[in-house]
Sequence to fold (230 residues):
Amino acid sequence: GAVVSQHPSWVICKSGTSVKIECRSLDFQATTMFWYRQFPKQSLMLMATSNEGSKATYEQGVEKDKFLINHASLTLSTLTVTSAHPEDSSFYICSARGGGARYNEQFFGPGTRLTVL
Amino acid sequence: DAKTTQPPSMDCAEGRAANLPCNHSTISGNEYVYWYRQIHSQGPQYIIHGLKNNETNEMASLIITEDRKSSTLILPHATLRDTAVYYCIVRSRSGGGADGLTFGKGTHLIIQP
Fold:
């Protein structure tokens, strides 16, 4: 149980285009999901917290107008990188807070590797 | 959340126990110790967590010192698939898991054949 998927697993796009990444909790409902990014040889950095039915909370230094987050259902959150540029190339990872007995745990998706040319 | 300190890298022979240390000297009374690992180009995987008692599950054991200022994650019989970066994270559970995790640099564990 507690499986989180991401789609796509990798994407290559041209500079200036927008890219949408989906994060789904497959076998549980997640009222809270988190988005992280990881640059090469670095650790994961929290970008934003996504709560179902409300606006996302962004970490300091993360542009909310560039990284649009939508959490419209209890099993799906999306991250849209708008007008992507090469410096946005990174590994984007989502996590979902567990339900029931695993309420305090976070389960991570497999990640999406974004390459902006 | 309290800060943690881990060695940047460790080697361990396949089949032997891997012991990964973590210092968290500023841990407060309501903070738990969590361990995650990240295999190359994958999302992090939860391993185990504990408050003050030693814990064991199918993946690993967690030994927390009596003063809670440090802990050790033990992989009893390491395999090549255990090669990964291991993160020790200290956090409070009072927020109901509402907070994102703060990842340090972790320990890159390399299992040698």
